[in-house]
Design a protein that fits this description.
Layout: E1 4-14, H1 19-27, E2 32-42, E3 46-55, H2 60-69, E4 73-82
């Protein structure tokens, strides 16, 4: 099985829990070393957030289960990094 090192998730969640609480709860999932949450859209009932999770041998199913326990749902996996090293996106003249 591949070693998943970083996931970037687009998540829809209710206003509570806060993004701070969500980051704290996700950081408790096995093999997660860091969590970054960014609020990028808010409306009357829900928030859209981007969650970046870094660790070693991340288990998407466990992470997804925790997000659902907190009332959220994953809209998409926007980035997945697997292998021995994390490769950061490289900017090119085309985009």
């Amino acid at each position: 099985m591949a070693n998943t090192r970083r996931l970037v998730l687009d998540v829809l969640k209710p206003h509570k829990p806060s993004i701070l609480e969500m980051a704290e709860k996700l950081s408790e999932v096995e093999n997660v070393s860091s969590v970054n949450t960014i609020l990028y859209e808010i409306d009357e009932k829900v928030e859209n957030i981007k969650i970046t999770i870094v660790g070693d041998k991340l288990d998407f199913d466990r992470i997804n289960d925790r997000i659902e326990e907190l009332g959220g749902s994953v809209h998409s996996i926007d980035e997945a990094v697997c292998g021995e090293n994390i490769i950061n996106e490289v900017k090119t003249p085309q985009g």
